[in-house]
Amino acid sequence: MKKLLIYLAATAAVCSAQAQSSGDFTGFSAGANMAMNAANISAPINTVTFDALGQQSIGVGGFAAYGLSIGSASVLSLGFDYSFSDIKAGEIKVANSSASLKIQNAWSFSIAPGAMLTDKTLAYFKLGFENGKAVGSSTTEVSKNITGSSWGVGMKTLFNKNNFLQVEVKQTTFGAARFDGDIADFTARGTTGSVGLGFMF
Asked: Mean pLDDT of residues grouped by 10 in the chain (201 residues)?
């Protein structure tokens, strides 16, 4: 009986380790997502009003990643994300005129360590470098490239060997920048929640 219990315990331990193998999320993957963005641009100018809080937009994006196994149940992923849609960032008002603000061509590189929660589910934390173009539009249009950083958390769940669902929340903060001809810097930040479908190659 003692030998049988030892055998059963050893078998359960092996099965558990195999069930949470990180190998299912290693290698190249890519997919597309729907994202809800809440972004704003602000500047410390008393004569200018920024109507930017709670500006929300829904967009479409793409993502790609390469996962490296760093343990029996751990993965380190290097990723790239791109937004195909404009991200609303509020409105600037000066006297009787106004201009809409948005962020275009937003993309990021990220590093994301993750751990297997079950045999088909990976949870991860990510840190990223962000890039985009801030655009102000009224009778004319001005733009400025902006860069920053981000952090987020997410989860991937496999439906089968290749297809997976990805859910993620990310916070982005861009560094100070200035439109040509303006007298003050502006800053931009945003929160993105996304749901996507991906494919493991």
From this structure: 43 43 83 89 59 70 95 92 86 66 90 93 96 80 88 95 95 82 73 95 92
Residues across the chain: 201
CATH at residue 67: 2.40.160.20
Q: Where in the sequence is the domain holding 72, given as residue range(s)?
A: 2-200
- Take residue 60 and report the two structure tokens written for it: 């479409």
Question: Using CA atoms, how far apart are residues 90 and 42, in angstroms rounded to an integer?
Answer: 9
Q: How far is Cα 158 from Cα 87, in angstroms, rounded to an integer?
A: 29
Q: How far does CA 200 lie from the centroid of its chain? A: 18
> Whole-prediction pTM value?
0.77
Measured CA to CA, the distance from residue 124 to residue 52 in angstroms comes to 30
Of 65, 64, 57, 66, the C-alpha closest to 34 is 57
> How far apart are the C-alpha atoms of 101 and 50, rounded to whole Å?
10
Cα separation, 44 vs 162, whole angstroms: 49
Cα–Cα distance measured from residue 127 to residue 130, given in angstroms and rounded to the nearest whole number: 10
Q: How many angstroms separate the CA atoms of 193 and 171, rounded?
A: 9
Residue with tokens 């993750």: 114
If one counts the domains in the chain, the total is: 1
- The two tokens of residue 165 are 């669902």
Written as six digits, the tokens of 70 are 């760093």
